[in-house]
Design goal:
mainly alpha
């Protein structure tokens, strides 16, 4: 183990701070970078992982988080992404309980705090990897590279590529994984703190604790298991002080054969065996949990993995690697999603982008040669461990072992960026050591880089505060990404700007002609604008591309119903139900179709099915009451209305319909109570005032009837029938006055 100070460290243009002060400084920089995201909204994937995830609700059994995936779907489901992260979901659930609901501030604050803690702990990790492992008499880590480790930690704290993980709440998985990753590594280092200078003594208990923390990291995100690779490399290179280059020469040339007894005595094989057994056990458990089958991804998710031949796959995978490297080097062009045409495939060896692949591998080969062949042991160790920390955590995302469901994902670089920051800090130290006359320029460059990082983080985290700013920011980065245009259109539609939304949906379909979700949403808007012919064409195309798209079948049925194509509409509704068995909204729309065709019994059965699948389906309950009222089945209408109000005691529309029924049954007092209750909930309902006036009119309470007729006409002067009823009442009141002596 290296116990001497790192020779380039004192050249780093930073003050030498006490250990605690250094950690506080790094944590404050981390907070400064991302603090403006604390009051952001739930954006992008947060809606599925948090807002719509039933596992966060106190009413859901806690055990469900162990059988469901990150998004709340059962792991055995074919639609599950198989992302098993129960500890992360558990922290979401705690946020929900502590805040008393879905309030994003608490979620964001915890993410920011976690990043600050991780950034501060990075000082310890970097200190060991750069300066070697040593402890003082109080069992505290001795930092032989205080300036280099501080600079690397500052780069990590302020790196803009972390914005998605910190400002996006679903990035909690990456943060927790990184925290347990660090703790597992630092605990593994504890195994060699035995109060002795001998390298051949270690604590099995600390190695086991390290494995348990690795399992915890894996339960936060699958990437956590890669800490075992970092621990193994650290053990071989730093604890056992193995020179990989010399070792390979011995094995290949047969000179100076390897001293096996020395390795056995050091305990390396024992430790590697423990980690190997633990890692294989975790992988086997993970494989069994996800149902022994990988998730099913489509060509849209990862087009390179569906390329026509192996050569093109390898070329495009390497191009993806070069883009990830560029995001670490120049994190200015950041995007929430890199799929759907954002990164066009390389389809020929003459594509100019092949230059980036060659450049990437030239740089990597240069670094690897320096890491293996340098005569400087400190440089060799730092470069090797920096490359390990850069590459090993990225391995699960590289498509080598299994197909991943993305092209580029900034969040998967959270851990890998620590290796880059270590290499960058080493580069600064190396330059300062050898270019002493440019020391001021280097100092200014480092300060400028940190300032640019902080400014970029602040800008990017501000963009993550709302979906509107997040989606629109991506238009300049990935103008060819159909999903970006789709999300901008969806956000505009949600805010009521359907005209602008149509343009973005059309562009999404143009960029990706088989984008069924864009077709479905565009068809919905056109349906609302009564452009029914084009809406039918779009929705028909969507279901022809994806025949099991239940929502598109239902929307197609609604359009066909409006076009009075009743038979086709009924078939579309049944297709939707065939592909989604539990589809209450579709049963509701099917009931409306039957009601339009005067098939009253079928309509009631469809609406009853809707309420069985979704007991709080207000529209279905209300339509049943209205239909029974209109067909003269007042007794049954009363029963259905009372049943609905037991489930939805504050639904003013059902109260209104039930009050009408009770009025016709001459249960005036009870009818009046429901009308008044409905008006307390919705006091500006003109129809409710009008029908209450009719009730008072029948009941003989003419002054009250006059009051509510006037309120109704004030709210809606064009209310049908109300003006005539009011005039009739006034004539009756005038006649009374004339006959009054």
């Amino acid at each position: 183990m290296a116990l001497c100070d790192v020779y380039w460290d004192h050249h780093i243009p930073l003050p030498k701070l006490p250990h605690v002060h250094a950690k506080v400084t790094v944590a404050l920089v981390a907070l400064l970078c991302f603090i403006n995201s604390y009051d952001g909204e739930f954006v992008f994937d947060d809606s599925e992982a948090i807002v719509n995830n039933k596992d966060l609700k106190p009413t859901t059994p806690l055990n469900n988080i162990w059988s469901n995936d990150f998004w709340g779907s059962n792991l055995s489901s074919n639609s599950s992404h198989k992302s098993y992260r129960p500890l992360t979901v558990f922290t979401f659930r705690l946020n929900y309980l502590l805040a008393g609901g879905l309030h994003p501030v608490g979620f964001h604050v915890l993410n920011i705090i976690l990043h600050a803690v991780i950034s501060a702990l990075m000082i310890d990790v970097f200190a060991i990897l750069i300066g070697g492992l040593a402890y003082d008499e109080n069992s505290r880590i001795l930092n032989h590279a205080p300036k280099t480790s501080l600079l690397a930690a500052l780069f990590f704290a302020a790196h803009p590529v972390h914005t998605e993980s910190v400002a996006g709440i679903v990035g909690r998985a990456d943060l927790l994984c990184a925290l347990f990753f660090q703790l597992s590594f630092l605990t593994y280092c504890k195994a060699f703190n035995r109060g002795s200078d001998r390298d051949d003594r270690f604590s099995v208990q600390w190695v086991v604790v390290s494995l348990l923390l690795c399992a915890a990291a894996m339960l936060c995100k699958e990437q956590g298991i890669t800490v075992l690779g970092v621990n193994a490399a650290f053990d071989v290179l730093l604890i056992c002080n193995v020179n990989v280059y010399e070792l390979s020469q011995r094995l290949l040339l047969g000179k100076n054969p390897l001293n096996v007894s020395e390795i056995l005595r050091s305990g390396l094989l024992t430790r590697l065996s423990l980690m190997g057994f633990g890692g294989l056990s975790m992988l086997y458990a993970r494989w069994r949990i996800m149902g022994t089958g990988p998730p099913a991804f489509t060509e849209v998710d990862n087009p390179a993995s569906f390329a026509e031949n192996v050569f093109l796959r390898i070329v495009n995978y390497n191009y993806y690697y070069s883009l990830n490297a560029w995001l670490l080097l120049c994190p200015w062009w950041l995007c929430f999603d890199w799929s759907m045409g954002c990164v066009p495939l390389i389809k020929s060896a003459t594509d100019w982008r092949m230059v980036w692949l060659l450049l990437l591998w030239c740089i990597l080969i240069g670094l690897i040669s320096q890491a293996l062949c340098s005569q400087d042991s400190q440089r060799r160790r730092t470069l090797t461990l920096g490359l390990v920390l850069l590459v090993v955590p990225f391995l699960p995302a590289c498509n080598i072992f299994f197909r991943v469901g993305f092209v580029i994902a900034e969040r998967v670089l959270y851990l890998s960026s620590s290796g880059y920051c270590l290499l960058l800090a080493y580069s600064v130290g190396h330059c300062c050591c050898h270019w002493t006359k440019y020391r001021k320029l280097l100092c200014a460059s480092v300060l400028a880089l940190l300032c640019v990082y902080v400014a970029r983080c602040a800008l990017r985290s501000h963009q993550w505060r709302s979906e509107q700013s997040l989606f629109t920011s991506a238009l300049t980065v990935c103008p060819l990404n159909a999903k970006v245009h789709y999300n901008v259109g969806k956000n505009l539609a949600d805010r009521g700007n359907t005209t602008a939304a149509i343009a973005y949906y059309r562009e999404a379909v143009r960029l990706h002609p088989t984008y069924v979700h864009a077709m479905n949403n565009l068809g919905n808007i056109l349906k609302e604008r009564n452009e029914l012919i084009e809406a039918e064409q779009l929705l028909s195309k969507a279901v022809s591309i994806q025949p099991d798209f239940a929502a598109a079948w239902m929307n197609l049925g609604i359009v066909q119903n409006s076009l009075q194509k009743f038979d086709e509409a009924e078939q579309s509704y049944w297709n939707a139900i065939r592909f989604r068995k539990k589809y209450p909204d579709c049963y509701y729309n099917l009931g409306r179709l039957y009601a339009d065709q005067q098939r009253h019994v079928d309509a009631l059965n469809a609406w009853r099915n809707a309420t069985m699948l979704k007991p709080d389906h207000s529209l279905a309950w209300n339509n049943m009451v209205i239909l029974l009222d209109n067909t003269g089945n007042l007794g049954q209408a009363e029963l259905i209305g009372r049943e609905a109000l037991r489930l939805l005691p504050n639904d003013h529309t059902i109260m209104f319909s039930l009050a009408n029924v009770l009025g016709k049954l001459q249960k005036y007092k009870e009818s009046e109570g429901f009308f008044l209750h409905a008006l307390r909930i919705n006091p500006n309902a003109a129809s409710c005032h009008g029908n209450l006036a009719v009730l008072y009119h029948r009941w003989g309470k003419l002054e009250l009837a006059k009051k509510h007729y006037e309120l109704s006409l004030k709210l809606d002067p064009e209310a049908p029938g109300t003006r005539d009823n009011y005039n009739m009442l006034r004539r009756k009141l005038d006649q009374r006055k004339q006959h009054t002596p």
